[in-house]
Amino acid sequence: MFLIAATHVALNFYRLLRGYVWLREEVGPENYFLDLGRWDNVAHNALNAIMTWVADCLIIYRCFIVWNHNYYIVIVPSLLLIMSIIANGIALKEFTDVPLGTIFGATLVHWMNTIYALAFVQNVMTTGLIAWRIWRQEKESVNVGIHSADSRSSLLPIVRIIIESAMIYVVELLVLIILYALKHNAQFVVQEAVVPTVGIVFTLMTIRISKRSYKVHCATVTEDQSRPIQWRARSVGPMVTTEYTTTADDIDMKPIGPFQVQDDEDSKYEETYDKTRGRAVV
What we know:
- It contains eight helices and four strands, in the order H-H-H-H-H-H-H-H-E-E-E-E.
- It has helices at residues 2-22, 29-34, 39-66, 75-95, 106-143, 156-181, 187-225, 229-236; strands at residues 242-246, 251-255, 260-262, 269-271.
């Protein structure tokens, strides 16, 4: 995704130079960008399509993993992806055949609306399936008493993160569908934002979930460390507890509980008790 987005930005910069600088007198910016058959314009649209396919494949794969490798769940999203690939291929072919300045021609409008609609439906479906699966798992965990609804291990924040991140791309597709159907030139602005937005959305989703998991982990570790040492020891097995006394020359380690110490010289064991405390510390 990073390579596609970087290539997309570089190609757009090249197109701007050609349209507004190098071919300004010979062709003119308007005629240059309305000539959909130029190789750089076709490549630009091809990058848009490839980025969308990569995003669709990734969200379908995530849905497949969340649903425990259930192939039946991803059948419809996969069919929508195949239809999108076919529609994009036909649209790219149409770019090379249509006359100059017919970006809103009847044939292209039909195929472009089909492409955007397929991407919209596919993303809404897969995001909804992922969110619903995680929400259902959360409800089952609460019902059987694994944790409470307000516990740090709740999965509901994950559902919120997935929906919020996916909505950025979904809303952008919806706006693009409306603008293209209205034959409004503002669709060019939204279309150029699709490629970087796709990369941002999927990266944002990963980073936010990872950041939350890290916070939960830190909170759990802090809570565990605040518990009595005797309680924690029973949960992980026998522990050796030592008391550190700092002197001017070194640090002496004085055992304060029953344990076994191995002598490095003769490999013998001895048992030491803390008689001053009158109790055994594990």
